[in-house]
Automatic annotation (TrEMBL):
<feature type="modified residue" description="N6-carboxylysine">
    <location>
        <position position="156"/>
    </location>
</feature>
<dbReference type="GO" id="GO:0046872">
    <property type="term" value="F:metal ion binding"/>
</dbReference>
<keyword id="KW-0479">Metal-binding</keyword>
<feature type="domain" description="Amidohydrolase-related">
    <location>
        <begin position="55"/>
        <end position="447"/>
    </location>
</feature>
<protein>
    <submittedName>
        <fullName>D-hydantoinase</fullName>
        <ecNumber>3.5.2.2</ecNumber>
    </submittedName>
</protein>
<dbReference type="InterPro" id="IPR050378">
    <property type="entry name" value="Metallo-dep_Hydrolases_sf"/>
</dbReference>
<dbReference type="GO" id="GO:0004157">
    <property type="term" value="F:dihydropyrimidinase activity"/>
</dbReference>
<dbReference type="InterPro" id="IPR032466">
    <property type="entry name" value="Metal_Hydrolase"/>
</dbReference>
<dbReference type="InterPro" id="IPR006680">
    <property type="entry name" value="Amidohydro-rel"/>
</dbReference>
<dbReference type="InterPro" id="IPR011059">
    <property type="entry name" value="Metal-dep_hydrolase_composite"/>
</dbReference>
<dbReference type="InterPro" id="IPR011778">
    <property type="entry name" value="Hydantoinase/dihydroPyrase"/>
</dbReference>
<comment type="similarity">
    <text>Belongs to the metallo-dependent hydrolases superfamily. Hydantoinase/dihydropyrimidinase family.</text>
</comment>
<dbReference type="GO" id="GO:0005829">
    <property type="term" value="C:cytosol"/>
</dbReference>
<dbReference type="Pfam" id="PF01979">
    <property type="entry name" value="Amidohydro_1"/>
</dbReference>
<keyword id="KW-0378">Hydrolase</keyword>
<keyword id="KW-0614">Plasmid</keyword>
Length: 472
């Protein structure tokens, strides 16, 4: 290393694990990037010894919701500051939340508004997905192609929720824009009419407690929509990514399509590994606490959990995201919107999990359910590739951003909301003990969490990342 090329940081004795390799070396960092991987690197301004820890690429959370404008008096508890703080403490160094179009408004307005929400707040880097809720001719012909070129190369569409859902024809049109512009469409696959019919029936029978959310959204509703989305992708001849897959019925559809050679990607989330419908009270509890675990699709049962674990290791899933949806429990703008006597369909959907995503999956590594390389692939490498951020993010290599997490693979931690860094008043994972914890986080070479202590880096140090073309 030439003398005039001084290093800002050296991480010594790192046990580096990427999606494909494992090797021991020192990591040299300059200007926020990794510039050397080698032995006996020269002294640097700052040094840290990683003996006994794993050095992993920082997590890329490819699906989370932060400070997303909400309808009907709902409000998210996390903004870009508290959400990215929690992410960093959980070993994530890049987040991709959603700039959501409102029906009747432009997509560009949503992007501009979302930048204002992020500016000066984020402590780690971020890109944006778009949510296309109103695919007018202007959106399809002008706004969307232009935004894709400007670094917003992935967008989500919904097959359910009145304020967001697209018709089948609109879905086809949006997919066609993705095909023409090399973008990626993420699909929320649940059948809206089946859900509203089942909901009306349940509510009409007085079955309104949170637990009935699971009965209004059975797995057939997800299976049908998943198959329909796959059919649209086939007709348009474009890859899609099915988000937050909850269990075996949808997995079967995705495997079937993948087996036919289609590029159908899929994502799952911690709630489908650790929660079941019992957590919403399905055992017969009509109390309101079950609202804490209300998300869509709903958590199902242990058999489905096992199917989701299997699909994480056999190639069905490419991405493991948090789908962090931060609503407070004890809050009239959160889970208690409209009070606790309202039917289940008034409960804001989603669970928090941006900080616990990686430890909950890593516990599967500790239990021998998946390999370390699979862990890195699902949580960092593949989301970086699929969402156009690789090789800057998603790996430890010369030229990559120095987004590095030092993990203690044997540390046992009992999850407690009191120790988390989000602004939500609960975690659905309270009391679960995991093995393995992210101890130290570097974002572009800056030490932002040390031995579990959040070091209060400047809010706003996180940078917006223009996403390139998805690598499927
Ligand atoms: O219930 C969920 N998943 N809420 C978050 C929004 C979404 O659909 O991803
Ligand atoms: Zn969704
Ligand atoms: Zn989501």
């Amino acid at each position: 290393m030439p003398a005039d090329n001084n290093l800002d940081l050296v991480i010594r004795n790192a046990d580096v694990v990427t999606a494909s390799d494992r090797f021991r070396c020192d990591i040299g960092v300059r200007g926020g990037r990794i510039v050397a991987l080698g032995h006996d690197l020269p002294p640097a301004a700052s040094e840290i010894d990683a003996t006994g820890l794993l050095a992993l690429p920082g997590g890329v959370d490819g699906h989370c919701h932060l400070d997303q404008p909400m309808p009907d008096g709902m409000r998210m508890a996390d903004d870009f500051f508290t959400g990215t703080r929690a992410a960093a403490c959980g070993g994530t160094t890049t987040v991709i939340p959603f700039a959501a179009q409102e029906k009747g408004a432009s997509l560009k307005a949503a992007v501009d508004d979302y930048h204002r929400r992020a500016d000066g707040r984020a402590v780690i880097d971020y890109a944006f997905h778009l949510i296309v809720a109103d695919p007018t001719p202007a959106v399809l012909q002008d706004e969307l192609p232009s935004l894709i070129r400007q670094g917003y190369s992935s967008f989500k569409v919904y097959m359910t929720y009145d304020d967001l859902k697209l018709s089948d024809r609109e879905m086809l049109s949006v997919l066609d824009v993705a095909r023409q512009n090399n973008a990626l469409v993420m699909v929320h696959a649940e059948n809206a009419d089946c859900i509203s019919w089942l909901t009306d029936k349940l509510v009409g029978q007085g079955r309104i407690a949170p637990r009935f959310h699971a009965l209004a959204r059975p797995d057939a509703v997800e299976r049908e929509a998943t198959h329909r989305a796959i059919t649209f992708a086939e007709l348009v001849d474009v890859p899609i990514l099915i988000v937050h897959v909850s269990g075996k019925e949808a997995i079967e559809q995705i495997r079937w399509a993948q087996g036919r050679g289609m590029k159908i990607l899929a994502e799952t989330c911690p709630q489908y590994l650790y929660l079941t419908a019992e957590d919403m009270g399905m055992g017969g509890d009509d109390g309101y606490e079950g609202a804490k675990c209300v998300c869509s699709p709903p958590p199902r049962d242990p058999e489905n959990q096992a199917a989701v674990w299997r699909a994480l290791t056999n190639g069905v899933f490419s991405v493991f995201s948090s789908d962090h949806a931060p609503f407070n429990y004890d809050d009239p703008e959160g889970k208690k919107l409209g009070g606790t006597a309202q039917p289940f369909d008034h409960i804001p959907n989603g669970v928090p999990g941006i900080e616990t995503r990686l430890p909950l999956l890593f516990d599967g590594v500790a239990r021998g359910k998946l390999s370390l390389h699979q862990f890195v692939e699902l949580t960092s490498y593949r989301p970086a590739k699929i969402y156009g951020l690789y090789p800057r993010k998603g790996t430890i290599a010369v030229g990559a951003d120095a987004d590095i997490v030092l993990w203690d693979p044997t540390r046992k931690v009992r999850i407690a909301n009191a120790n988390l860094h989000h602004a939500v008043d609960y975690t659905p994972y309270e009391g679960i003990e995991v093995t393995g914890w992210p101890m130290t986080t570097f974002s572009r070479g800056e030490l932002i969490v040390r031995n579990g202590e959040y070091l209060e880096p400047a809010a706003g140090r996180g940078k917006f990342l223009e996403a390139g073309q998805p690598e499927i």
